[in-house]
């Protein structure tokens, strides 16, 4: 973005010049904003379903509501707000090519609401991870508390830095979203975004593998231990999505057509955020199935046991 002259423009002029041979279209431009609408609606329905099942299970089946439950509820509320803000960005050019977006529509609006959306996303991811880590503290037989607390501190620190990067990205702050401000300076915020994305992926790996190290010395029947591991490791299954989101962020960094490219990248941000909530809810799924669908639990257990004996 810095290589373009983004000084104040007239309403009938796009934010950036179009490619050679392309004429800006402000009346009926090409659009892919339907991807954002469909993605957010589907993801909200999925995360809401799993959130409802978790709250029902912890309240009426397990009868043990803890701090981790409140954290994942907060993560879900933040995700709802982030998805709503993401959808609002359509009004300011999201889904259109940047040369088809009038400067007066984009300036002071798109980047401001993108910052809000990113803040809500980062905080939602943070509380989803904290919910899983607090769950480990509550229920795992062996508790290397120092290691878990260290991971919690790391998650909080990089999440807050990444979520509120707009507070220190530019001087003055308004320069982050107001392209007509020519004074002051900005850091290369894309590098910071990629850095926090890398840390996000690393902590996903840690959360995925942590139950293995914590249960390795616990004396349980083989298949019961495997079942417990699978339940606890569901919290890290968002890792694949995190890697995809990180790659799309890197690919997007050098493309100035951010209102178009953000759709392809931003959908993975939303997928990661909502699936992180689903993963945080999955560990209580066994209790729900055992209560209402015991045949599923028994069939799975018998399959494991008989399969092992046949081997």
Report on the architecture of this protein:
The protein is mainly α and 311 residues long. The protein has a single domain (33-302), classed as Rhopdopsin 7-helix transmembrane proteins (Up-down Bundle), CATH 1.20.1070. Helices cover 68% and strands 1% of the residues. The protein is built from twelve helices and two strands. The chain has helices at residues 33-61, 67-88, 103-106, 110-139, 145-163, 166-169, 189-215, 222-233, 239-252, 258-281, 285-292, 294-310; strands at residues 170-171, 185-186. The protein has a two-stranded antiparallel sheet. Helix 1 (33-61) crosses helix 11 (285-292) and helix 4 packs parallel to helix 10. The radius of gyration is 23 Å and the shape is elongated. The chain starts with 32 loop residues before the first helix and ends with a helix. 35% of the residues are buried. Residues 1-9 and 304-309 have low confidence and may be disordered.
């Amino acid at each position: 973005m810095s290589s373009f002259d983004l000084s104040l423009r007239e309403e009938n002029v796009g934010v950036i010049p179009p490619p050679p041979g392309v004429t800006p279209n402000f009346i009926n431009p090409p659009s892919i904003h339907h991807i954002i609408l469909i993605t957010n609606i589907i993801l909200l329905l999925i995360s809401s379903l799993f959130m409802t099942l978790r709250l029902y299970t912890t309240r009426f089946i397990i009868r043990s509501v803890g701090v981790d439950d409140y954290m994942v509820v907060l993560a879900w509320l933040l995700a709802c707000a982030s998805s709503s803000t993401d959808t609002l960005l359509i009004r300011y050019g999201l889904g259109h090519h940047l040369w088809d977006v009038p400067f007066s529509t984009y300036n002071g609006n798109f980047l401001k609401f993108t910052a809000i959306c990113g803040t809500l996303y980062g905080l939602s991811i943070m509380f989803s991870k904290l919910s899983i880590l607090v769950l480990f503290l509550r229920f795992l037989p062996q508790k290397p508390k120092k290691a878990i607390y260290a991971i919690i501190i790391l998650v909080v620190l990089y999440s807050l830095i990444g979520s509120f990067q707009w507070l220190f990205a530019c001087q003055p702050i308004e320069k982050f979203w107001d392209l007509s401000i020519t004074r002051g300076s900005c850091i290369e915020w894309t590098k910071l975004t990629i850095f926090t994305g890398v840390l996000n992926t690393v902590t996903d790996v840690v959360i995925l593998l942590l139950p293995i190290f914590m249960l390795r010395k616990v004396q349980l029947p083989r298949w019961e231990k495997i079942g417990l591991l699978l339940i606890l490791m569901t919290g890290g299954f968002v890792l694949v999505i995190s890697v995809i989101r990180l790659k799309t962020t890197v690919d997007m960094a050098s493309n100035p057509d951010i209102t178009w490219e953000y759709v392809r990248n931003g959908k993975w941000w939303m997928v990661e955020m909502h699936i992180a909530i689903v993963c945080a809810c999955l560990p209580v799924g066994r209790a729900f199935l055992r209560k209402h669908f015991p045949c599923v639990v028994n069939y799975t257990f018998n399959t494991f046991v008989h399969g092992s004996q046949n081997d």
